[in-house]
Amino acid sequence: MRVQLLGTGSADGWPNPFCTCASCGWARAAGSLRTTTSALVDDALLLECGPDAPRQAARAGAVLDRLRAVLVTHAHRDHLEPSFLLARAWARPSSVLRLVGPAYVVEECRPWIGPDDAVALVAVRPGDVVDLDGYAVRVLEAAHDVGRDEVARDAVLYEVTGPDGARLLWATDTGPLPASTVAALRGRALDVLLLEETFGTKADHGTGHLDLATFPQELARLRDAGAVTGSTDVVAIHLGHHNPPGPELSELLGAWGARVVDDLAVLGEDRMPDARRPRRTLVTGGARSGKSHRAESLLAAEPHVRYVATGGAREGDAEWASRVALHRGRRPSTWTTLETLDVVAVLADGRGPVLVDCLALWLAGVLDRARAWESVAGTAARAESLAAVERECARLVEAVRLCTTDVVLVTNEVGSGVVPEHESGRLYRDLLGSLNARIAAVCDDVELVVAGRPLTLRGTRP
Fold it and tell me: Is 327 a catalytic residue?
């Protein structure tokens, strides 16, 4: 199956021609122009036909004379501009074109079809399966109310299986997927997922669209259902200017095993390296820098994560209990929390992604267990305690180096402040600095978070 994305932008494109925001400014400076989203499959199927699609096909060098069907999800103008039917009629085609869509889409197109035009209108609803000359099209429910009549008022999505068996899901527009759609996709092992991500960092849009908070959640649901696998090419489409500039967006999506491509890109020809291979990531930063939130975001598209909390419980400490509750509340309900210092055992079993928060508390716990604080500097007891701590640190570093699953480790950057007044504080600072450096040396990616912004110190995410 050959899939060419004619456009990858939202209704107003990116950049919005009237907008002076930083994201639109970046797009203009970079020469990045995204037109309304549509795709051409094997020169046989056109997915959406908004106002830009025919001209984008021409720019791609594609002639639409062999087009068998146009699949339209709903009648918003960036998805359906029915005047293309008039242009086709003027070319006097001999083959029949089937126009597939919800009933109200069909009715919007009917006035544009002459009595002798070779066009067949096919009204569909969720649950239907349509055979289009060897292409099996399943119609799925979408969460995108377009405000039409009570019988067929919503958008649909399309799962397309080609003659070669390749399977594609066209998922634009939609908010969080209905349960019926996720159930219908269970075990389908898609080859290509084209999933909208319209609103980027804008979370208060209140529309039937996805953003950078809900996009990874939908990926997690589809992974859990077996619809998205390690070989699925996940491409974000229907992109708008509420997204961060391109390089930052690509880096974030890459952490979730997804990507963006330019308008007119042909999928498969520029396929990224497998982003799903296990990666070891160290996230460091100062207090309240946003490092924990960043670490959680890197695994946001994973349905099942083991969250290793190394701080444990502190009886009688209400402020600590409040912090723990805040952290727990923002994690997905499908994640499992483990309160333990035995990080090595969790990493060794290889049962899915792991988030460790944090190494600073882990080291404090190891020092407590070795009774290092109780010994006097320069004594045999202190040496014995530090030897025990070193053995634990060495075991942890080796476990991170050998782990076979994604792991994200959070730590504190303690070397930038004043020299601690007490000997115990200086000991802790030195040991944590050393541990951070050793963990960083065996990680694929190392990030420093400052004021909520991640800075890459090592590695480039796919």
Answer: yes
